[in-house]
């Protein structure tokens, strides 16, 4: 199926603001669906709540639109009950990394074969630009007018530390690289995670002197460094950078495969009596 | 004497698992919590023996999400918890209602609020089980009083869930969950099991929310030849978000109507000695056991006492309770809370029947003696009132 | 036997009282066509604090599962002995472990001390105190038959002959000790 055919054209124009990065990420995803010969029937797109949580409205595979922060938990059940499905979980930074942060690290640890794609636009877009768990320190949001005093998560570092076999961070500015990461993540057996640094000109950009989409994209570009060059930076220098690249790419037996052994053991016990 | 193979002496919590498996359940996701943990433990042992799957999630929010997801993939699914965990599940309970995904949630009630007394019984979640999640909705709640119920009624719980595409709450309590007693784990006939209806239309015509009047649309699993859109947002027949007021009105009424208008199919009660009564004890769950004991003791004293056990708690068995109110001089409601079910009974009491509660919230079971004392008290009062 | 027999097994967590109660219940329900319930009262601790199990064995259906009038109380710890000794009436039998409990005189109940802990050591495992106690209960009350309990033990430990043997020895030891009364 062609990438375009995965989109629900009748629901266009997209709900997202002009200049939002979500559309770019969505197109990268459906291009990957085409490359991997996914079908509408064998794919489930799972979303939570937030701007990116509306992503499933425009994708015509099976979809499950759940609650704020819990998309991975729904996705875990969907995948474990039918390991044949391609399960792709779309989350924003507020959704997947703040309210849903605990589910994120446990999903990475549990290693269920789902792919999660977090669009990280550094704030809560849908509710009006409040700070999230990834908002950088000192930035202004609608709830940190005097400068944000908390530090944002290094999401990819967090998920890699939690044990995910595939973790990569790209940005909407570098959409080609981002698409490559998404493709690799979809192909990876086990829990895979792609973080897409994206622009929110309406809220985060506007409050931080970048109200034009291009302004915020440029800011992302100028502050991006590769994983290898980030190694040369001090901790404080790293904190203000978007470190792009792969944080993990390894083979690790996934939950469903391992569970087959549990079933085998359990049946042995059952047949052997008490 | 020789052993009868199918008789076991096990806890209610363990019998629930056997009931779930007999009903066809093959997926459990949960988070351990006293006094429900035996359900998790037994599920982790038994499900893989039947090609099912047990997964322990990071909290109860994730647990209910996972069973809803698994059910959407076509597996009959359940979880078990107690008060604190049941509170955490309320938001996603709404997803199961809104997306109309069958599942069974076991709540083995313990003394609350908050952490309360983890190992002690209570029945304080009677109203929460009905109204715990936000927004208007209908829900089915069943309540066991014996270990045999834990097996048999669990099959009903899954059947209702599948038939009406709804979460079903299995509202047990510590008394029933932890008691060990005789249970017959019987072979369940195929005809006893209800599986969700499947579509037979062309894939492009399939709409997962195109309901019949007071019934539900067939629900195809993910991964079949149909494309299924499920959503916790207000949606149209196809599952796309829809903010039209008439659409919201239609669907929100549907969530209530599909339950309330099938009252006769869903409501189960048990009647003990109700043919000729002065006083009816209306009880549910573990307190039913105290009521039945009290009834037997009262009958020995020559008192005309009967018991109406509500097995289905929601939809509330209004017709049966109204009959009890009409046919009795007094109705006594023993419950391990400060009077949750009695509110419903009083709401229906247009007959000037004396309605009184026996309530305990000190973490101890209501004793038959306490109910007997109340019977005596009500008799005295009634004779003053009615002569 | 009475139509309803009420037993309390009391001690501290970790003594295997629930296992003991379950064996009694299984013997009654699975091998004798009787009814039985077992309920346990315990705290959030797993080990070392007061716990009791209520076992009811009856010809009739059992509704209220808690002991209302004790017919038999087993006490395996001082804390549980102290709790029950003065409460129970003359129709009740109180059996306690005289190795670990200092008894009080002049009780209403008929009380019997047995060296249960010593006997368990002799069997080779202190954890068999609960099974020894079962032997005492069965012999002194006849609430279920020796054969039914043996059947349960056989089934429980069918895959572990050594453990079966140890438990059977413990059970027989209890029967023997009660015999000597």
TrEMBL record, chain A:
One of its GO terms (molecular function) is oxidoreductase activity, acting on the aldehyde or oxo group of donors, iron-sulfur protein as acceptor. The keyword Oxidoreductase applies. GO terms for biological process: cellular respiration. It comes from the Bacteria. Residues 55-195 form the Thiamine pyrophosphate enzyme TPP-binding domain. Keywords: Oxidoreductase. PANTHER family: 2-OXOGLUTARATE OXIDOREDUCTASE SUBUNIT KORB-RELATED, 2-OXOGLUTARATE SYNTHASE SUBUNIT KORB. This is 2-oxoacid:ferredoxin oxidoreductase subunit beta. The lineage of its organism: Bacteria, Bacillati, Bacillota, Tissierellia, Sedimentibacter.
Automatic annotation (TrEMBL), chain B:
InterPro entries: PFOR_II, Pyruvate:ferred/Flavod_OxRd, Pyrv_Fd/Flavodoxin_OxRdtase_N, THDP-binding, Transketo_C/PFOR_II. Residues 18-243 form the Pyruvate flavodoxin/ferredoxin oxidoreductase pyrimidine binding domain. GO terms for molecular function: oxidoreductase activity. It holds the Pfam family PFOR_II. Residues 278-371 form the Pyruvate:ferredoxin oxidoreductase core domain. One of its GO terms (biological process) is response to oxidative stress. Keywords: Oxidoreductase. Gene3D superfamilies: 3.40.50.920, 3.40.50.970. NCBIfam families: PRK08659.1. PANTHER family: 2-OXOGLUTARATE SYNTHASE SUBUNIT KORA, PYRUVATE-FLAVODOXIN OXIDOREDUCTASE-RELATED. This is 2-oxoacid:acceptor oxidoreductase subunit alpha. The lineage of its organism: Bacteria, Bacillati, Bacillota, Tissierellia, Sedimentibacter.
TrEMBL record, chain C:
Residues 13-176 form the Pyruvate/ketoisovalerate oxidoreductase catalytic domain. InterPro entries: 2-oxoglutarate_synth_KorC, Pyrv/ketoisovalerate_OxRed_cat, Pyrv_flavodox_OxRed_cen. It comes from the Bacteria. Gene3D superfamilies: Pyruvate-ferredoxin oxidoreductase, PFOR, domain III. SUPFAM superfamilies: Pyruvate-ferredoxin oxidoreductase, PFOR, domain III. One of its GO terms (molecular function) is oxidoreductase activity, acting on the aldehyde or oxo group of donors. The keyword Oxidoreductase applies. The keyword Oxidoreductase applies. Pfam families: POR. Keywords: Oxidoreductase. This is 2-oxoacid:acceptor oxidoreductase family protein. It comes from Sedimentibacter hydroxybenzoicus DSM 7310.
């Amino acid at each position: 199926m062609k990438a375009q055919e995965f989109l629900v054209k009748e629901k266009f124009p997209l709900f997202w603001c002009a200049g939002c990065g979500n559309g770019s990420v969505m197109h990268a995803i459906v291009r990957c669906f085409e490359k991997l010969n996914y079908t509408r029937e064998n794919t489930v797109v799972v979303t939570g709540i937030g701007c990116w949580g509306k992503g499933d409205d425009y994708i015509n595979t099976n979809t499950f639109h759940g609650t704020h922060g819990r998309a991975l938990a729904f996705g875990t059940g969907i995948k474990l009950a039918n390991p044949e499905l391609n399960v792709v979980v779309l989350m924003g930074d507020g959704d997947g990394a703040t309210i849903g942060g605990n589910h994120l690290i446990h999903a990475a640890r549990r290693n269920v074969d789902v792919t999660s794609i977090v669009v990280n636009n550094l704030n809560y877009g849908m509710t009006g630009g409040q700070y999230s768990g990834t908002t950088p320190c000192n930035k202004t949001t609608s709830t940190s007018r005097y400068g944000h005093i908390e530090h944002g998560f290094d999401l990819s570092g967090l998920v890699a530390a939690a044990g995910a076999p595939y973790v990569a961070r790209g940005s909407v500015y570098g959409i080609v690289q981002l698409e490559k990461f998404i493709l690799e993540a979809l192909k990876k057996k086990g829990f895979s995670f792609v973080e897409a640094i994206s622009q929110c000109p309406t809220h985060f950009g506007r409050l931080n002197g970048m109200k034009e989409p291009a302004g915020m994209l440029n800011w992302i570009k100028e502050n991006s460094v590769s994983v290898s060059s980030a190694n040369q930076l001090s901790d404080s220098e790293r904190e203000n950078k978007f470190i792009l690249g792969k944080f993990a790419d390894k083979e690790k037996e996934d939950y469903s495969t391992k569970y087959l052994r549990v079933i085998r053991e359990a049946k042995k016990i059952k047949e052997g009596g008490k | 004497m020789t052993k009868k193979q199918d008789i076991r002496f096990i806890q209610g919590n363990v019998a629930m698992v056997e009931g779930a498996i007999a009903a066809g359940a093959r997926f459990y996701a949960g988070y351990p919590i006293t006094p429900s943990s035996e359900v998790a433990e037994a599920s982790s042992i038994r499900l893989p023996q039947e090609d099912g799957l047990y997964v322990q999630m990071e909290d109860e929010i994730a647990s209910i999400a996972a069973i809803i997801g698994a059910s959407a993939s076509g597996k009959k699914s359940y979880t078990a918890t107690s008060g604190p965990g049941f509170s955490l599940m309320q938001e996603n309970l709404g997803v199961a209602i809104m997306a109309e995904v069958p599942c069974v949630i076991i709540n083995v009630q313990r003394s609350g609020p908050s952490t309360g007394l983890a190992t002690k019984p209570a029945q304080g979640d009677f109203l929460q089980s009905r109204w715990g999640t936000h927004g208007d909705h209908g829900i089915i709640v069943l309540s066991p009083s014996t270990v045999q119920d834990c097996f048999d009624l669990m099959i009903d719980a899954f059947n209702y869930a599948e038939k009406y595409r709804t979460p079903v709450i299995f509202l047990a309590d510590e008394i029933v969950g932890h008691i060990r007693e005789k249970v017959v784990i019987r072979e369940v006939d195929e005809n006893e099991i209800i599986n969700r209806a499947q579509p037979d239309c062309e894939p492009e015509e399939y709409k997962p929310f195109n309901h019949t009047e007071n019934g539900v649309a067939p629900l195809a699993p993910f991964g079949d030849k149909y494309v299924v859109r499920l959503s916790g947002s207000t949606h149209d027949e196809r599952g796309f978000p829809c903010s039209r007021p008439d659409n919201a009105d239609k669907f929100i009424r549907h969530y209530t109507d599909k339950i309330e208008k099938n009252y006769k199919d869903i409501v189960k009660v048990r009647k003990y000695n109700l043919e000729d009564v002065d006083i009816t004890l209306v009880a549910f769950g573990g307190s039913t056991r105290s009521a039945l004991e009290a009834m037997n003791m009262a009958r020995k004293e020559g008192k005309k006492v009967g018991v109406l056990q509500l097995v289905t708690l929601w939809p509330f068995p209004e017709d049966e309770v109204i009959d009890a109110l009409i046919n009795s001089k007094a109705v006594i409601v023993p419950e391990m809370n400060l009077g949750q079910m009695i509110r419903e009974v009083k709401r229906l009491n247009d007959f000037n029947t004396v309605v009184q509660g026996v309530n305990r919230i000190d973490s101890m079971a209501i004793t038959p003696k306490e109910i007997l004392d109340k019977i005596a008290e009500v008799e005295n009062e009634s004779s003053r009132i009615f002569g | 036997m009475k139509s309803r027999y009420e037993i309390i097994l009391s001690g501290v967590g970790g003594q295997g009282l629930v296992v003991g109660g379950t064996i009694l219940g299984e013997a009654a329900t699975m091998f004798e066509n009787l009814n039985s319930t077992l309920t346990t009262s315990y705290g959030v601790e797993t080990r070392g604090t007061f716990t009791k199990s209520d076992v009811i064995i009856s010809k009739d259906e059992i509704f209220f599962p808690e002991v209302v009038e004790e017919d038999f109380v087993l006490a395996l710890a001082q804390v549980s002995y102290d709790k029950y000794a003065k409460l129970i009436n003359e129709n009740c039998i109180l059996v306690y472990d005289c190795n670990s409990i200092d008894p009080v005189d002049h009780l209403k109940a008929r009380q019997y001390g047995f060296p249960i802990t010593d006997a368990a050591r002799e069997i080779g495992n202190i954890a068999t105190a609960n099974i020894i106690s079962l032997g005492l209960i069965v012999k002194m009350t006849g609430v279920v038959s020796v054969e039914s309990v043996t059947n349960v033990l056989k089934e429980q430990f069918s895959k572990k002959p050594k453990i079966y043997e140890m438990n059977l020895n413990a059970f027989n030891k209890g029967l023997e000790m009660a015999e000597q009364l």
